[in-house]
Amino acid sequence: VTPLLDAVAAPTPTPGGGSVAALAAALAAALGQMVAGLARKKKSHEQFVDGLTAAVQELDKATRMLATAMDRDAAAYDEVLAAFKLPKDTPEDENTRVAAIESALRVAAEVPMEVAEAAMFLYELLGQLETITPASMKSDLRVGRMMAAAAAHGALANVEINLESLTDPDFVSTMRARWEVVQSSLVPRPTAAAAS
Fold it and tell me: How many helices (H) and strands (E) in the chain?
């Protein structure tokens, strides 16, 4: 963990917030996997073994995808920085530079959007696991859900900042629609007690 913390702390643009958001989501998935794995070993939860096994598989897949997304996010932003450094001496240079920036920004928006959507999925799945795991593990699941929510919010912030510089209205519209789906799922819903 220390080398990763050192890399984030270094005075370089990457890894930055997008990679940290992906890490938070990966940790949420790993924590959920731990809980589901422990719960399926308990005799008192034998009736939930199939659901817990399916959850372990989904969470393992998510952990691996999000670990890869950490590197993909850093690489995407490195491409944005490289595109901005391209020459702009001639009209041809400028056209090449603008196209490279647009292409790099699309990837830099897409990667954190995938992270946000994965984090939203994790947030829901970890909540569902609370009903089929021992009460003694609820705090682990709740930490996981908080990490997933933080990851989704952080990833959405990265999507938003990259969309601000994009000029393709269709791509921006599609991404904003996906952004809204994740954002609306993270808005706290009133509980029955709060509603009464």
Answer: 7, 0
* CA proximity to 141, closest of 21, 64, 39: 39
State CA 57 to chain mean position distance: 18
132 and 52 in contact (C-beta within 8 Å)? yes
Contact 43, 90 (CB under 8 A): no
Nearest-angstrom CA–CA distance, 138 and 124: 14
Q: How far is Cα 65 from Cα 143, in angstroms, rounded to an integer?
A: 20
How many CA within 13 A on the CB side of residue 102? 12
Residue pLDDT, tens place only, 51-71: 999 999 999 999 999 999 999
**How many C-beta neighbours within 10 Å does residue 187 have?**
6
Cα–Cα dist 134/138, whole Å: 7
SS3 133: coil
**Residue 11: phi, psi to the nearest 5?**
-75, 55
pTM exceeding the 0.85 threshold for the entire prediction: yes
